[in-house]
Each structure stands twice: as structure tokens, then as C-alpha cells.
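Course assignment 3, question 2. Fill in each field.
Student: A.L.
Task: Predict the tertiary structure for the chain below.
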Amino acid sequence: MIELNDVHKSFGVNEVLKGITASVEKGEVVCIVGPSGSGKSTILRCINGLESYDRGGISVEGLKVDRDAPSILDIRTQVSMVFQRFNLFPHRTALENVIEGPLYVKKEPRAQALERGRALLAQVGLAEKADAHPPQLSGGQQQRVAIARALAMQPKAILFDEPTSALDPELVGDVLGVMRKLADDGMTMVVVTHEMGFARDVADRVLFIDGGVIVEQGPAKALLNQPQHPRTQDFLRRVLHPL
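Answer field:
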């Protein structure tokens, strides 16, 4: 479904991606792990056309990702993104946030968008919060609204950019629970995360990225339990067994 071929990206003189080649199959959950600043979030932003890339190629179901081409709108409706900081409209209710895309991007009838929006809020456990504004919600609740908003576009894949890193620890489980259910339902997902337990239990594959390159990749349990590369071993030791 998603193909990256020798993707390079620089910000000024800083080369963030140094030749990323990877693929994501339909229905697959791929977790991207690695230290801060390694290029993980940039990969997601390039897939979704939020950032341009300098060299190489990215395609979604055979359609080239080019943020300056009209086709980028089609890609963004097929590939939703959930951000670290929720990015909800604070002046709109939870339900209004969820139906924004279907109404104004996909031009759905309002009654239809409202019905599905309420169903999606119920799906993420927030049926009773439809009329609440984001400042009235906890961080975990806001992130679940953001997931419902992503689902409202009926995407073929969802990109998650560290969806739990801004949450208090006790709120992480609710968000991960929603994501686990999506994986069980067959949603194609690419997840940048520091939640190694989630990656081990839910992901089909894990990519370990450091310094803008894929150092190691493989089946989730194999890579996280028995990493082969010394840099992966060192990273996981620090993450899983901090001093």
C-alpha cells in the first residue's frame, strides 16, 4: 500500500533522512522506533505530503506522493494522520471536530456526517462527550477524539506520530486500547512510538531508525526480543531498562 524508495530529506544543511527504503502492506501494522531526532516523524510527514522530500520516491497505492500535485488531496483523504499534540479546534465541540473533514473535504451531507461522527465517538468510548469542547477534555480524551476524526475520513491507512507521548501515564492505556482495536479490525497503521510493549504485542513489523537510516527491521517480537544490530541492542537496553 505504501512504498518508500531511497527517500532523502534535508532541513538546511541537516540531512534528516538518508535513503529510506521501506514498504507497508494493506492491513499491516508497522511501528517505527528510535531515538529523538532520528527522522521518524519526518517519514510520516513525507508520506502524507506535509513535508516535501528531496530525492527518491513515495507512493500510496501506486499514486506518487507529491505535495505540489493536485493528487495530494486524494492521498490525504486515503491516509489520515494522528498527531502528538491532538491538533483539535478548541472552539469546536468534539463532534464538530470529527465531522469537519467529511463535511468540508468530502462534501458529505451533514446528517450523514453527524450520524457517523456520533458512532465514531462511541467507538472510541466518548459518546457522552460529543458536545464537549477540547479544553473540557483530558489529554487522553482529546487524542481519542483525534483518532475518531482520522477515522471519519474512512481512510485506507492511518499514520500515528507518537500519539501517547504528550499524555499523562495513566491516560496512555485508553488511547493504546483504541489503537489495538483498530489493528484487530485490520486497519493499516504506521506508528511512531516509544511504547515498546504496544509495538511488541500489536505490530507486525518494527523499523529501528537512527541517524536518518533504517538500522534494522524485522518481525516485531523478533526484533524487540532479540535485536541483531549493536545500535538496536543499545537503544532497547536504554529504553527497556533505564537506570
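Instructor remarks: The chain has a mean pLDDT of 93. The CA atoms of residues 123 and 219 lie 29 Å apart.
Grade: pending
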